[in-house]
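User: Hey, my collaborator sent me this sequence without any context and asked if I could get a structure. I don't really work with proteins. Can you help?
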Amino acid sequence: MWSARHRATGVPDARRAFPSRDRGVLLFPHASPHLPPPSPPPPVVFRLLVPRRRVSAVLGLDGAVARRLEAETGARVAVEPVDDRAPPPRERVVRITSPDDPSRGASSQASPARVALFKAYALVAAPDASARRSRAPIPPFRLLISDDDAAAFLGVDGAALHAVRDRSGAAVRVRDASDPADEKATTENPSPPAPNAPAASRGRV
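Assistant: No problem. I've predicted the 3D structure and written it out in structure-token form, which is a compact way to encode the shape of the chain:
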């Protein structure tokens, strides 16, 4: 294990200590050559703000519409619970999730969650009978995103936000959300966006 030139330094000859058939050096002879499988990517998550009176358009009777959306897209659609002891909020959060598929890469194929997001907003934006009678405005397309995502969405001096506006033609802004206080709300034009349009929130928060 010790060569003549290493006896003086006290450092063993690695080639003699751990010989390898492929002429390499096995520095850790007891370590397993198999690495653990990589962790799955986090899911894609969107949190859509929906006026309280329009939540039924996404859920349907006994959740029938939400189940249909899930069957059509493969995403999970649910309304986040609220504190029953607090006053009813003006808006509810519809949470839409799906597993991330790394094989999509940079392709234009939208994730199931993104497809379900646009379908859900189309249902919210479609005027019902009472809205037509009262001429209520179309609810804006608003997402809740974290502070970190808001910073990435804005970019340096707002460059990323301006690029999204230029590519999509939408009126997009990021503002402080009043509920919950630690998140941001992004607002886009009220017309339903295309399935491959840029979205404000990913599930890596």
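In plain terms: The first strand starts at residue 44 and ends at 51. You can pass these tokens on to your collaborator as they are.
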